[in-house]
């Protein structure tokens, strides 16, 4: 028996050596490029990934130029028209209106009129008010077409509802400015304006927001800048939301979406939502947030999902710059970074610029105040353009054209795909089209490789449109695909859009497999709360904190034909998954690599389609040994960090031959050696192997007779 064991062991070693699978190395070009994997199954979680649009608020620029039909129409065509930015969301400001005896708001655009006047101490509606903004709104709706969305929002209640008697804020800017007895009156005011616009002027109101950056100390009485109103978190914000819901319902406008709370900071927005009363939280259907401050984008996404809410990025802009010696492109590259970060990290399905025009040129000024004048568009500035009232012209910037690289091609109704780094992507299932937008803030070319292998079909080329210091939405020709990869060089300091036609397919995630058991290497410092079980707890917030040469393996219980593997990186350590790989085995001994993670995936679930449906009972995630050399992971050693793993597939329809112990579908020397080890009690695991199938003579017992018959079968085969 000992000689037989030695012989079988030697033969088995030869078999295993011969069956070893080597990885296919990346080409030099691939290794130098930033790899972005795109998948039709890896979509934004918010709103089922369906994109709703791009927009701008109309205050204050529409209030400033709406007196001129010429400038109003130019603006509508430039920003909302199909040949312009093709925006579709207009956030319309319902002004409160300041005390008519006040003259402290000195900006020419930000003194917003209200819709009521006090007559004998009673408010009377004046529907002739705010003509300028309304004139622009109507033209923008017409230019946007069927995709147009109007959201009403308020910066402040009318002055006579305010504690300070002033619509720019409280005398103590950190205190509520709406009078305690005026919550219902303010809600009635907003609802009445919404009703009038919809029923009298035929302007469909999609949503309404009662507050703007409420939990701040920005808004003080007698300010020179704008209307504003502080609301405390919790009871104060909850009360105005609930009162607005009642006022809208009273007018038969329950279908208008209530949203909240438009905090200036992402982190404050999380606190604000969590502090809402249950009634107020149920009243809002969408979270609107600004992103001027804070960093907890993915956490806000999680809050929205946990509460069943949609999520918009409803306002941001700034004087930021990006790029290397980028010149006029610097503001546009900053905007590209902000759009990509906000959308990908928050999964926001709408992105709205504060105001497209922030500066005006006019020798006479407006309403007794002076305009700011022409900008230096080679440095950071607010807005996208400048309106010259003297020359009846709107001057456009590279920031405008950079914005258009996104807004003109990623359209409402498309499905947003999770992407990493400098890239955004959207899938147009209706038209079999994939849109990819990437920016390059480097002073040199940047190599990119977009892996589209998860789609069933892709076209042979990508239409390529680019904005740089010498180009504005220029069609620079087609970029050829190499199989399912689009390998390109991004021009220095540029924003580029790629449109691939003939893109179809998806991943079937209907057959999820629940592992029967799992095991893995030790976590860092043997921390129990970061063990391999965290990969299978259904939470992306927990993770396996494996170290060098780490791995985690799952037993599926039986052999499946795998169709897909899902995975989520550990948040803030996404780069550690680059070059990590999944391998499968039918017997737990012989492994075949089926998928390698290329590039650093974004935080969230990703899905790899396995087109050849490999047979697997065991699936293992591992990382390479040694120091990473991919240019992405800067650690001294590959660490096995992964937050979640999922498996999809169907049970393999296999008829096992008698004598097949290791589930590989054949009878060979491996089975003979396993039986020897079982008979000599070296193996006692009866779940991992099917020893009952080694009962060659059918006597319901295993012995040397069965071994002899099994060997005869092997030799005969």
Structural descriptors:
717 residues, Type 1 dockerin domain, TIM Barrel, Immunoglobulin-like, eight-stranded parallel beta barrel, elongated
What does this structure look like?
This protein has 717 residues and is of the alpha/beta class. It folds into 4 domains: 2-14 and 656-716, Orthogonal Bundle (Type 1 dockerin domain), CATH 1.10.1330.10; 51-357 and 398-407, Glycosidases (TIM Barrel), CATH 3.20.20; 415-501, Golgi alpha-mannosidase II (Immunoglobulin-like, Sandwich), CATH 2.60.40.1180; 508-651, Galactose-binding domain-like (Jelly Rolls). The protein has an 8-stranded parallel β-barrel, surrounded by 5 helices. Helix 7 (235-250) links the parallel strand 7 (207-209) and strand 8 (257-265).
What's this entry about, in short?
This protein has 717 residues and is α/β, with parallel strands linked by helices.
Q: Radius of gyration, Cα only, in angstroms? A: 31 Å
| CATH homologous group name of the largest domain | Glycosidases
Here the CATH topology of the largest domain equals TIM Barrel
- How many helical stretches? 14
- Can you count the beta strands? 32
- Poorly predicted spans: 1-31
* Shape verdict: elongated
CATH class of the largest domain: Alpha Beta
Give a short account of the largest sheet: 8 strands, parallel, barrel
What's the overall average pLDDT, rounded?
A: 93
Please give the domain count: 4
Q: Output the structural class.
A: alpha/beta
Distance from N terminus to C terminus (CA atoms, Å) equals: 22 Å
The strand order across the widest sheet is: 2-3-6-7-8-9-10-11
CATH 2nd-level architecture of the largest domain = Alpha-Beta Barrel
Helix content: 10-25%
Strand content: 25-35%
């Amino acid at each position: 028996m000992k000689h037989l064991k030695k012989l079988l062991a030697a033969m088995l070693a030869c078999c295993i050596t011969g069956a070893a699978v080597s990885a296919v190395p990346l080409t030099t070009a691939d290794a130098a490029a930033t790899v972005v994997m795109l998948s039709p199954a890896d979509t934004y979680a918010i709103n089922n990934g369906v994109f709703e649009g791009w927009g701008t608020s109309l205050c204050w620029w529409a209030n400033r130029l709406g007196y001129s039909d010429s400038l109003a129409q130019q603006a509508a065509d430039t920003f909302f028209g199909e040949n312009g930015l093709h925006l579709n969301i207009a956030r319309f400001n319902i002004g409160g209106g300041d005390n008519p005896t006040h003259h402290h708001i000195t900006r020419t655009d930000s003194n917003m009129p209200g819709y009521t006047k006090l007559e004998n101490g009673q408010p009377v509606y004046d529907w002739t008010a705010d003509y300028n903004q309304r004139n622009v709104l109507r033209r923008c709706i017409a230019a946007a077409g069927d995709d147009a969305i109007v959201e009403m929002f308020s910066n402040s209640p009318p002055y006579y509802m305010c504690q300070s008697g002033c619509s720019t804020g409280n005398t103590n800017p950190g205190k509520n400015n709406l009078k305690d007895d005026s919550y219902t009156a303010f809600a009635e005011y907003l609802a009445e304006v919404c009703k009038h616009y919809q029923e009298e002027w035929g302007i469909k109101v999609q949503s309404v927001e009662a507050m703007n950056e409420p939990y701040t100390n920005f808004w003080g009485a007698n300010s020179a800048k704008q209307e504003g109103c502080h609301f405390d978190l919790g009871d104060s914000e909850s009360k105005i939301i609930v009162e607005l819901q009642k006022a809208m319902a009273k007018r038969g406008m329950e279908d208008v979406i209530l949203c909240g709370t438009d905090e200036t900071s992402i982190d404050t927005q999380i606190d604000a939502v969590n502090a809402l009363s249950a009634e107020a939280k149920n009243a809002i259907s969408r979270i609107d947030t600004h992103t001027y401050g804070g960093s907890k984008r993915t956490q806000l996404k999680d809050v929205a999902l946990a509460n069943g809410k949609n999520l918009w990025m409803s306002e941001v802009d700034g004087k930021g710059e990006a790029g290397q010696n980028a010149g006029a492109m610097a503001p546009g590259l900053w905007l590209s970074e902000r759009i990509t970060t906000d959308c990908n990290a928050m999964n926001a399905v709408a992105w709205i610029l504060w105001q497209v025009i922030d500066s005006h040129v006019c020798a006479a000024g407006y309403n007794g105040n002076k305009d700011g004048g022409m900008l230096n568009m080679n440095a950071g500035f607010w807005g996208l353009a400048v309106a010259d009232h003297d020359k009846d012209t709107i001057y456009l910037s590279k920031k405008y054209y950079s914005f258009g690289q996104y807004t003109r091609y990623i359209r409402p109704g498309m499905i947003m795909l999770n992407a990493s780094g400098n890239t955004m992507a959207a899938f147009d299932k209706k038209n079999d089209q994939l849109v990819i937008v990437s920016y390059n803030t480097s002073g040199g070319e940047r190599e990119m490789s977009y892996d589209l292998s998860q789609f069933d079909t892709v076209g042979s080329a990508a239409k390529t449109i680019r904005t740089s210091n010498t180009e504005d939405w220029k069609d620079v020709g087609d970029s050829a695909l190499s199989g399912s990869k689009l390998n390109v060089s991004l021009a220095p300091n540029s924003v580029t859009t790629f449109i691939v036609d003939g893109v179809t397919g998806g991943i079937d995630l209907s057959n999820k497999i629940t592992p029967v058991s799992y095991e893995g290497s030790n976590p860092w410092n043997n921390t129990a709360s970061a063990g391999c079980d965290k990969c299978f707890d259904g939470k992306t917030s927990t993770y396996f904190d494996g170290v060098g040469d780490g791995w985690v393996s799952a037993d599926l219980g039986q052999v499946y034909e795998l169709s897909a593997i899902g995975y989520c990186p550990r948040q803030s350590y996404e780069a550690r998954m680059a070059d990590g790989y999944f391998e499968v085995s039918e017997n737990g001994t012989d492994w075949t690599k089926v998928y390698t993670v290329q590039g650093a995936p974004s935080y969230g679930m990703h899905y790899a389609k396995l087109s050849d449906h490999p047979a697997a009972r065991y699936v293992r995630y591992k990382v390479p040994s040694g120091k990473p050399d991919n240019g992405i992971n800067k650690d001294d050693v590959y660490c096995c960090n992964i937050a979640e793993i999922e498996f999809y597939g169907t049970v393999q329809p296999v008829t096992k031959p008698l004598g097949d112990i290791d589930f590989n579908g054949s009878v060979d020397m491996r089975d003979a050696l396993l039986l020897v080890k079982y008979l000599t009690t070296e193996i006692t695991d009866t779940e991992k192997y099917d020893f009952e199938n080694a009962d060659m003579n059918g006597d319901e017992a295993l012995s040397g007779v069965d071994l002899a018959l099994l060997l005869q079968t092997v030799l005969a085969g």
